[in-house]
Amino acid sequence: xxxxxxxxxxxxxxxxxxxxxxxxxxxxxxxxxxxxxxxxxxxxxxxxxxxxxxxxxxxxxxxxxxxxxxxxxxxxxxxxxxxxxxxxxxxxxxxxxxxxxxxxxxxxxxxxxxxxxxxxxxxxxxxxxxxxxxxxxxxxxxxxxxxxxxxxxxxxxxxxxxxxxxxxxxxxxxxxxxxxxxxxxxxxxxxxxxxxxxxxxxxxxxxxxxxxxxxxxxxxxxxxxxxxxxxxxxxxxxxxxxxxxxxxxxxxxxxxxxxxxxxxxxxxxxxxxxxxxxxxxxxxxxxxxxxxxxxxxxxxxxxxxxxxxxxxxxxxxxxxxxxxxxxxxxxxxxxxxxxxxxxxxxxxxxxxxxxxxxxxxxxxxxxxxxxxxxxxxxxxxxxxxxxxxxxxxxxxxxxxxxxxxxxxxxxxxxxxxxxxxxxxxxxxxxxxxxxxxxxxxxxxxxxxxxxxxxxxxxxxxxxxxxxxxxxxxxxxxxxxxxxxxxx
Length: 487
Prior knowledge:
By secondary structure, this protein is α/β, with parallel strands linked by helices. The chain contains 13 helices and twelve strands.
């Protein structure tokens, strides 16, 4: 009985050694195929295992092994099998991790290239859009226009703004997906923010003949800490979508509810209700996916790219909130946006004019730094309507030289483009701030550029600029910004 056990262990060990030899051959092929490594050291274990197998065979055929020798040989085969499996598993894990790291690097490079491309193409798209919207604004200020011409110009403006909105949606989606969108935490008036939203949406409803109802509670007259810009953009996007898909006669309702908690964090619930075309229940799970639209016929009728709600959803997620929708086909939709905001105290009465600001731009002198003559001319014409004197520099180097030659206080503000030949706006702003003159550190420098990424805004502020306006800048926003910053 012992003899059968001894030889059984030896023959089983020999068979297992054959499996080990085959395994190490496959292991060597795998490593060579994945890494290209064909060093002789890969084949040393195979040669040794073959010799071990010959030894097994010799002992089994010609030797007189006892139980101890058989146990050692059998245990050796099992040990080699375990080592082979461990080496194979570890090597595959290492190679897989390297593959994943390589793919991650390739993805990061691809995202970087995409971001660079979008930043560049957005600049190229915004530049002509700035010209179109600027000239349209200037033309509409002419009181002697024929009514038909005025209607045509208004249609041009609306189409240009629609295209600008599409560009902004694409850029916003890219900023969110690549992590370039940074949520800011600043104190703001919730009531004022809601009134701004009301002003925009009520105008859209009036133009379309819709009834607009807004319910803003008294609790909104308070200061909160959060990202006012991102919050208002989300609300405007959802409300604009409601207006777009509601036909006349119809109504859109906007309601805010504030629920205080035990801490300073308040839950703000924004409800947007419309009597529009509604959404099919089967489509609801995909409504917040990028480029998803229920059917092409509604796209042709109402327009849209399928991006606004996707951007809104991602923005709400970054704000730490939720967005849900309920809808019935043909009866309208209800969107509910819940966002937490930190309560900062009751609203205080504001002074009529911010400290240091001016009431009028009449007689002010502003340096426009812009390499594209058409863009500079539009800004000059807009500022001329406010009685502003302007001077033009074709690039940053010329702007620095003009600043150096001028008397302190000669310029009241500088409008600075970012992308320019010879010297860009960031370098120019830094050099102006470094000039040895009394107004070098105080003169308002405003970035007026087609570069609209969050990283561009941060770069402008880090270069010493006071604020960042994206082209095409609205005339009123430009005027208000100048009035606020000019001392």
